[in-house]
Amino acid sequence: MEAAERNAEKHINQLLKDVRRMIVYDRAERFRQGKEFNIFRVQRILNDEVKICRLIRELLDPKGSHGQGSVFLRLFLETLGWAKIRQIAGEDYDKATVAGEVLIKNDRRIDLLIRIGKYMLPIEAKVYATDQEWQCSDYYNFAVSYDPDVVIYYLTPDGHEPSDSSKNGLKDAQIQCISFAKEIIDWLTTCIKADALEQIHPVREILIQFREILKQLTGKEEGKVAMEIMNQISSSRDNFEAAEKVASVLAAVKAEKMIEIFDHIKHYMDQQGYSKYLVHEAYRDEANQYYKSKKLSWPSLNYCVPAAESEIGDKIALRFEIGTKLYFGIVPWDPVEKKNWKPESRDGDTETYVFEPLMPVKVEDSNNKHWYWMKYIAEEIDFWTCNNAYKELYDRRAFQETIESVFAEIADTLEVLMKA
């Protein structure tokens, strides 16, 4: 190894050691000061996007139990820039309604729907769930009949766009992408600083804790340790170059961890005699693309179902996939294109067969047209935001425990499939 390479490796190792020391010290200090206690973390709200939306709805509702009237709603619409381009009278804020899980045609449910004056503001939140076909366009077609100028707000952890199949031809001006990382955290910060909340300590503390848990969700955690790390990196050229090299390989490190999980699943399936039923695997390239793009690439591993009747067997597949989380299930399958992207391949006979002999216990049918049913595995792990549960995968013991739990979930389903 050249002297320059040895020197670079030395600085990388030292920088990682210094940063690790800062993190350990900061964590101990936060624990001592009680800052690690967060009621939302205890309740694992990050694992439940329904609860996240429910809390946001309660805060936005002028008649909400927070008792602050329309303050939070006003600040929210100002944060979005929505209020600037619309004529909203003061009393309209107080009379506004904020509903959750609003049912429309095709059994769609809009996560949040604000009605204020003559306007409507629909919000579709995607924390973990994947898009459904025509979802955003269905919401738009519903809302535009009430408000010709309506815009669908698409809320995700990082502000990425909905899928083309969800937009179904909607123009960019008809959808506004917003994020928990930017707009929601900015809104909560503005609310916390609002004069109206200066003496309302219980509500203010809830907002602070909610903001902190969303920073965890979006990887925006900050504080004294972040500043110390910045100072350490900027203290010398060697430190900056070391940090630059670490940052340059981080996406590849994450991709390798995802590939490792798929490799374990594939090895397990091989051991169960499923190697001959493998119909498509491209998870290596898909995993690398996953962390290079702002759009989910849905890395997957696909098997035909040996128990299926011959005329049905070509139309379905057992699929393991990562969207933001790891899940598996039975999908409609196109054996020519080797994709499950053609929902029209579903038919009544196949659906009946899948739902009766091939449906495991405790699994509901999916409302996603690309899946007959799907089941999450190790649901607390978020591969997109790389939350704390994800970081545990880099501990070998924790990784092995996770893999064993994955195998246990798979085993129960394979038993059902093999008996069908």
UniProtKB/TrEMBL annotation:
Q: Which Pfam families match?
A: PDDEXK_4
Specify the superkingdom: Bacteria
> InterPro entries per the record?
PDDEXK_4
Q: What is this protein called?
A: PD-(D/E)XK nuclease superfamily protein
Native species = Stomatobaculum longum
